[in-house]
Amino acid sequence: MSSEHSAPGDHDDASPPEESLPPLRLREPLPPVVDSDDAFSSTLAAIGEGEGPVAFDAERASGYRYSARAYLVQLRRRGSGTHLVDPIAFDDLTALDAVVGDTEWILHAATQDLPCLRDIGLVPRRLFDTELAGRLLNLPRVGLASLVQTLLGYTLAKEHSAADWSKRPLPEPWLEYAALDVEVLSELRDEIDRRLVESGKREWAEQEFDALLDFTGPAPREEPWRRTSGIHRARGRRQLALVRSLWDARDQIAASRDIAPGRVLPDSSIVAMAAAQPRDRATLRAMPVMRNRSARRHLDEWVDAVGAALALPDRDLPTVAARYNGPPPARAWSEKFPVAAARLGACREVVTQIAEDHDLPAENLLAPDTVRRVAWEPPEPATADAVAAALAGHGARQWQIDLTGPGLAAALDTE
Q1: Do 165 and 233 belong to one domain?
Q2: Domain boundary among 212, 232, 266
Q3: How far is the CA of 357 from the CAs of 2, 328, 332, 344, in angstroms?
Q4: Which intervals hold domain HRDC (predicted)?
Q5: Is residue 121 part of a domain?
Q6: Dihedrals φ, ψ of 62, to 5°?
Q7: Are 148 and 22 found together in one domain?
Q8: Contact in structure between 225 and 250 (CB atoms under 8 Å)
């Protein structure tokens, strides 16, 4: 780190007042965007000659585009500087992947960027996730700006985080913002790593990082339309069918145009149309939600979607309650499944206590869904080995099994 930055570890965990801290600045001039073969070749050479881990970040156009593709890739390595690569200018970035090889990646909130980086040929063999590591350290705030402020003593502006990164050319202030996201990731990684070692959590973190290497994105939801905002206002199965039909139509339009679904038709409009159940084109056309130009553009599709839902026989209407791949919501257990509710309560007490003993967030010690599944359908008999196998089957890492397995076995052994 250059002399303008304080040494890692000079700051305690209590964030100093933001107004008293200097803003993080680029140590070198803002690099030009890499969008030509010659510039890309220069980047490959520079990264290959650098030392140590490679800091990665990616910018998407969430809220503007349907796809989750990367529209800018930032990387920095000691001795190499920062590089801003426009992935849209290339078929893929596999040549960069080959140069990085098995060098450790540094990412913040890796699950956000790994899928879009994988799509363009960038796949880590080793990684260090500063956000996840911050959680294991039980730091109160683990956003990148918070960690930079708390651990390195600099403020980091995030004013362009929700920008439309598909825009071309990208404005210079956006590019500076993007470059700053990798400016001190190496220093942040080193400070967090030091704390992991001191707290005896380095091996836990390594297992967590290894588990991320195969991450390709969240599992698809069985009924994604049920996440429509305001769907609780839809009354009865027929209105739910209308929500589903309109959601599906919107999703197809959004995918074909690569535009965020909410920009095609807001969730509030879907719910309003479902509640109104318009019986003909004229009625639908006259609804206030059709004053929006984007909504009117696809009037024919909405008419077809509404008509299809209204024509469904009762047997094909969606159920009022969502289907679950696993146990039902825990809030219903105490009344309908009291024995399972008692097991869940005992398991949660065990996890909470162990988390407190080891200064961990309970959800990072063991995923709440894993606790619910084991309590809902415990192995019989609930021996330590059987519980350990059940936890592993639900994706728990070995360190989590070692810490929680014996206690959960005791909680589940009701004989």
Answers
A1: no
A2: 212
A3: 39, 30, 30, 20
A4: 236-316
A5: yes
A6: -60, 135
A7: yes
A8: no
Give yes or no: residues 229 and 205 share one domain.
no
User: What b/e sequence results for 191-214 when a residue is b if at least 16 CB atoms lie within 10 Å of its CB, and e otherwise?
Assistant: bbbebbeebebeebbeebbeebee
In a domain, 248, yes or no: yes
Number of domains in the chain: 3
Q: Which residues contact 349 (CB under 8 A, 6 or more apart)?
A: 411
- As a whole number of angstroms, the distance between CA 110 and CA 56 comes to 9
166 close to 64: Cβ distance less than 8 angstroms: yes
In a domain, 9, yes or no: no
Rounded CA-CA distance 359/7 in Å is 26
Q: Which amino acid is at 127?
A: L
Token reading at 254: 């959004």
How many C-beta atoms surround the C-beta of residue 305 within 10 A? 23
**Token output for 408:** 């959960």
Vertex 267: Cα angle to 266 and 269 (nearest 5): 70
Q: pLDDT tens across 9-65, in order? A: 434 455 666 678 999 999 999 999 999 999 999 999 999 999 999 999 999 999 999
Domain boundary, last residue among 316, 343, 365 = 316
Residue 323 counted as domain residue: no
Q: Which of 141, 132, 122 is nearest to 206 (CA)?
A: 132
pLDDT at 280 over 80: yes
Q: What is the pLDDT of residues 135-151, one digit of tens each?
A: 999 999 999 999 999 99
Pair (266, 239) in one structural domain = yes
pTM (whole model) above 0.85: yes
Pair (186, 251) in one structural domain: no
Residue closest to 345 by CA, chosen among 356, 333, 358: 333
Structural domain of 43:
18-212
Calculate mean pLDDT across residues 362-368.
97
Q: Do 256 and 338 reside in the same domain of the chain? A: no
Token representation of residue 5: 């930055």
Same domain, yes or no: 159 and 270: no
